[in-house]
C-alpha cells in the first residue's frame, strides 16, 4: 500500500487555524480515578465584573469536543489517525479479540483494489470482536454492576467540574417531572 497521492501527502500536517487554541481559554484535562482517564475540558477565562460590584470572576469549565486538535502539546498527523484512548480499558476486560484482517467482503475488495492505494491511509485499524459467549456492551457491564472507565469518563464529562462552582449559582431546583437526577453525576449513576 503506497501513499503517493498529493492529497494524502498534504494531510501530514494540519493548517494552524484548525488547531490553534481558542482565545481566552486553555485546554485542560480532568483526571479520573486512574491516570489513563483524561477528560478534555476547556477552561474559559472570564473578564472581571466592573462597576460598583467589581469582582474577579473565576474561569468556567466546559467539555471540549475538539479532541486533541486544540491541544498544543499534541502533534497532529491525519494520516495516522487519533490515538485510541479506550484500547487499554478494552484490553483489561479480556473479553474481545482482534481479527486477523477485515471480515467483510466489501472491505477486502477495497483492500485488494490497487487503484485505491493512493487514497489509503497508512494506518488501518484491525477489527475487534467479542470473544465467543461474551457481551461487550456498556449496558451489559452496567447490568453486571461493573463500573467501567468509560462510565467514569462520561460522569466526569457531564459534571464539567460542576462541584467547583455550584455554590456560586443561586438558581432554584426547577421541576424534575419525576426524574431523579442527582446533584453530581457519578459513574454509579451512569451505570444505573
Spell out the key features of this protein.
single chain; 192 residues; alpha+beta; three-stranded antiparallel beta sheet; two-stranded antiparallel ribbon; 7 helices; 5 strands; 24% helix; flat
Report on this structure:
With 192 residues, the protein is α+β, with helices and mostly antiparallel strands. The chain has one domain. It is 24% helix and 12% strand. The strands form two sheets. A three-stranded antiparallel sheet has the order 1-2-3. It has a two-stranded antiparallel ribbon with strand order 4-5. The radius of gyration is 22 Å and the shape is flat.
Taken together, the total number of domains comes to 1
Oligomeric status of the shown chains?
single chain
Q: Based on CA inertia axes, which overall geometry fits?
A: flat
What's the Cα radius of gyration? 22 Å
**Mean pLDDT over the residues:** 83
Low-confidence stretches: none
Which sequence of SSEs, written as H and E, runs from N to C? Answer: HHEEEHEHEHHH
- Straight-line distance between termini: 46 Å
Helix content: 10-25%
The neighbouring-strand order within the major sheet is 1-2-3
According to DSSP, the number of beta strands is: 5
Q: Find the structural class using helix and strand composition.
A: alpha+beta
Biggest pleated-sheet summary: 3 strands, antiparallel
As a percent range, the share of strand residues is 5-15%
Q: Please tally the helical runs, counting DSSP H or I stretches of 4 or more residues.
A: 7
